[in-house]
Design a protein that fits this description.
46% of the residues lie in helices and 12% in strands. By secondary structure, the chain is an alpha/beta fold. The chain has a seven-stranded mixed β-sheet with strand order 5-16-12-4-11-7-8, sandwiched between helices. Helix 2 crosses helix 4, helix 2 runs parallel beside helix 5 and helix 5 runs antiparallel to helix 8. The chain is elongated and about 90 Å long. The mean pLDDT is 93.
Amino acid sequence: MHARKEAGLSKTLLKFRPRLRSEWLSILTAVYLLFFMNGTFWGKSFHYLQGQGFALVALAVGLLAAFVALTVTVSAKYLIKPALILMVITSVASAWFMDRFGVIIDTEMIRNAAETNAAEAGHLMTGAFVLHIGLFGILPSLLIAWVEVVHRPILKKLMVNLMIIAPSLLIFAGAGLSNSGTFIFSTREHRDWIRTLNPIFPVGSATSFLIGRSREQAIVLQPIGTDAMVADALPAAGRRPRVTIIVVGETARAQNFQLGGYERPTNPQLSKRDITYFSDTSSCGTATAVSVPCMFSVYGRRDYSHAKALATEDLMDVLTHAGIKTEWWDNNTGDKHVADRIQKTDFFKSNDPRFCHGGECLDQILVDGLDAWLDKVDGDAVLVLHQLGNHGPAYYLRYPEEFRKFVPDCRSADFDACTPETIRNAYDNALLYTDHILSEVIDKLSAHAKTLDTAMIYMSDHGESLGENGLYLHGAPYMFAPTEQTHVPFVLWTSPDLRQSTGIDKPCLTSKAASPHSHDNLFHSVLGLMQVKTTVYDPALDIFAACRSGVSS
């Protein structure tokens, strides 16, 4: 009986199954993609072409013609449904992140997504996101799958398709030429505009990423700094070992650092330490996958590329060549190949119940074993601590209950469930926790002052947008990224004995703290701090070079 009912239902569904010519299904899909999945693009179009009504109409007509040409091109018998469904799902997912967070899905954004972990990605897969995908992606896809597509004989189909594609391309070209001056000017003035065209730009970015990744397989690593040596190497120098801890922050923006003038006390503990805060520091990128390898690279931001980073040894390698012990402790999504050739520990894979839950760990896990590590140091060493920091959107998971100072704080990864004020409160609480972590690192280094000369350098990898100009999170293309995503905090602490042994003049450093700095300074400053001599060292980028004894400031 049950089988008969199912058979009857199937027959009923088939009876009412719509039949459409392949070209009509393609055209309807093109309309859906262009006008329903491009909220961000059309919002920018209305704004950038304000008062240019004819240009706006020409844009809509031209792009519709182009979308029709694209969808009709893939209307072959066994290709049409998978291709159209893929376009719909891609568009719906892209539209969610562009419309909700203001992000642009370029190659580096895709790289960042590809290199994230399940826990981090899970914070973006909220119930609202799943509902959005279901309503606007799955249901239309099921409709496409259900429709009975009527195909003409192959030769006639080719002819009909060409009769649609060719005029569509001519309309697209004509619409562009009719307002070429307006479009060219607006594109130059607003480089973010065309990058929000969905799914054209996301698909193009994904294709570029995959091509680039395939080419990366053939890259051969080239050594640098093989001549590196410590100028006053142990034990002949008769000094104590130097230890520098580099804390790589995550998603901390300088605008919310009390040390830089922020009105809230987000740095109450650091404010009591003998630190130097470099208030005008810019990042190399706006996402971890770019900034972390770039800040440890010999290449500055203008010369950096992902391929160059893979093909060239980094700061940790040069330090190793100099005989300095190097190690990497990670509580984020990995070292991005910076620590491929040194000892590393991935704390984010830990299930320590004191710090970890749901595949992520509080940054206290990085400090937990620091005393034991310092006790074993018997030579010059550099340790990197890669924080989880302020990674969003689940800021509330980045700090324990005792650091909920700014309330009410957003307790959700879905920003629609929170007000801008509660989002900022949660973000600031996470910064307050970072302040505590950095202060603990300083205190532990200070506690070993009798046996070690120590220093701590803290730099965030990039900043974060918290709703300014409709933008949230990070990852905007650098050429038009807002300052909230590129202005990062940079904190330096050095022990008095280290300053004495290396001739560093702290008042001189303080006098230069307001000058522009960037991730470009990290590579050469660490070499300078550790007294490493090598041909790849550039004193012009070493923040300590002009502030040593005997050097004019």
